[in-house]
Amino acid sequence: MTTVTAPRIRYGYAAGPAQVCALVVGLLLLVLGILGFIPGVTTDLGTITFASPDSHAMIFGLFQTTVLRNVLFIIVGLAGLGAPRSRAGATLYIVGAGGFLMTLWLYNLLFGNSDFGGNIFSANLNDFALDFCLGLAILIAALATSQFALFGSDYEEA
């Protein structure tokens, strides 16, 4: 008796579901970080501070930003460009990026625009909503694209 098994599909760089998601998340965060330094896109760019709640620079006139916040978004975004090399790396990156945004949301929720000496980020209600919603969406994407959630997938890492 012979058994027939379905062929496994082999994907290359950023072709599996988690890898594509990691690449998209990385590009999104990279673009958000870069936008924070572009005059016109960021209003009151002359008032941007490195790390304090006193920055009045606002991306699209909605999201308060600092140099540190932009640099962190760029670093996390760049990490996402290398994450799609493996399924495990991509999944870990997506979880880490979602965790980063949720941590930023929690930090801003606790200390946002307060006089606490450790408050190093400017944040308004739009930032709270962006960090929370984007972080939650990325964590849901991590769950949806992980191979644990895709039981029976024909995906095989190249």
Explain this structure to me?
- The chain is built from four helices and five strands.
- The chain has one domain.
- The two termini are 30 Å apart.
- Helix 1 packs antiparallel against helix 2.
- By secondary structure, the chain is mainly α.
- The chain has a three-stranded antiparallel β-sheet.
Brief synopsis:
By secondary structure, the chain is mainly α. It is built from four helices and five strands.
Report how far the terminal alpha carbons are from each other.
30 Å
Our count of helices gives: 4
Widest β-sheet, arrangement of strands: 2-3-4
Q: How many separate domains make up the residues?
A: 1
Q: Which parts are unreliable, with pLDDT below 50 for 5 consecutive residues or more? A: none
The major pleated sheet works out as:
3 strands, antiparallel
Strand content: 5-15%
Radius of gyration, whole Å? 19 Å
The helix content is 40-55%
**How many E strands?**
5
Mean pLDDT: 83
Fold blueprint:
Blueprint (H helix, E strand, L loop, with lengths): L8 E3 L5 H19 L6 E2 L14 E2 L3 E2 L2 H16 L4 H25 L13 H21 L9 E3 L1
Parallel strand pairs: 1-5
Antiparallel strand pairs: 2-3, 3-4
Helix pairs in contact: 1-2, 1-3, 1-4, 2-3, 3-4
Structural key phrases:
158 residues; 5 strands
